[in-house]
Every structure is written in C-alpha cells, then in structure tokens.
Design a protein that fits this description.
Blueprint lengths: L4 H13 L5 H13 L1 H20 L7 H15 L1
Length: 79
C-alpha cells in the first residue's frame, strides 16, 4: 500500500468495529477493504480478535435496582 494509507485504513477498521461510522461511510469502507488485500487481512484479524473478546468476557446481568439507583443519583446531582 502507499505510504500512509495503511495506518489510515487501520483507523477506519477500528472506527467500523466501534460503530463510529454512518451507513454511507460503512458502505464506502467495505468497498475499500475489498480492493486492498492487506487491508482485508487486517479487517479479518480484527474481527476475529473482537469476536473472541466478546465471547470470553463475562458480563453479569445488571439488576433493575442498580439501574434505578444510578438514575436517582443522576437526578439528584442534576437538581
């Protein structure tokens, strides 16, 4: 890839998986990834890493009491 293009593509990959792109940017990005084999490879690796993390990270369910406590605290602090 051209000098400076690959780091920019890596930033776009992160933005894509962090859901920081609008629908049009996502479509353009996916077309761009298809044109760059190295970028496509980086995309696949990042996707695999994020899927493994998502599968292995334990997120306990939050109780409604906790949610209500947070809401009350926010309301109290903003009043």
């Amino acid at each position: 890839m051209e000098n400076g293009v690959f780091p920019e593509l890596l930033k776009k990959i992160s933005r894509y998986f962090d859901r920081q792109m609008d629908a049009q940017d996502e479509q353009e990005f996916l077309k761009e990834i298809e044109r760059h084999p190295a970028g496509h490879s980086a995309f696949i690796k990042e996707k695999a890493i994020r899927e493994k993390l998502k599968a292995k990270v334990y997120r306990p369910a939050q109780s409604t009491d906790l949610a209500n406590m947070i809401i009350c605290k926010i309301k109290k602090d903003s009043a």
